[in-house]
Amino acid sequence: MKKVLVAAAALAAVMFGGSAQAASFSGSGFAIPDIGTASSTFTVGGADVSLSDVNVTLFGLSHTFWNDLDISLSHGGKTVWLTTDNGGSADPNGDYTFDDQALAAVTTLGVSGGIFQSEELLSAFNGMSLLGDWTLTITDDLGADFGNLQGWGITVDGVTSAVPEPTTWAMMIIGFGAVGSMARSSRRKRAPAFA
Question: In which domain, by residue range, is 130 found?
Fold first, then answer.
């Protein structure tokens, strides 16, 4: 009977469990137009992950005046503002990471990069699927300034989907059959003998 319980527990783990995952994805850079908007999108496919933490990094961001820039990340119908008109007259020139656990506030965005909390929490994506389009958008909303973004990316933590793939369903059905067969066999062995 112990084997039956172990097999059943293993099947339950397959059905309802998940494993922690961490991954990074990157998008292409673009020129930031004066009084205009530019964006970059990449699509994540493959095994699904339920998100538990999302961080965003802007690589090689250069521009005159931080407070000209509105930057957002969109995914699954949700948009999170990383910054809107923060940083004053500092000219960004470096790599900037937005992380909910950062100690520096978005209002302290400076010249040479760093790690900052975003204006809106990236935890808004928690519980969502990793799969689908991710879009970074930058708007320059004041005149006489141009900029450039060399690239950008996200780093995510999450749990693999608890919904089994079709091949996993097939293995589970075979497993349930084996568990049932073991249980019947175990009962037969213990059945009392009649004269």
Answer: 18-160
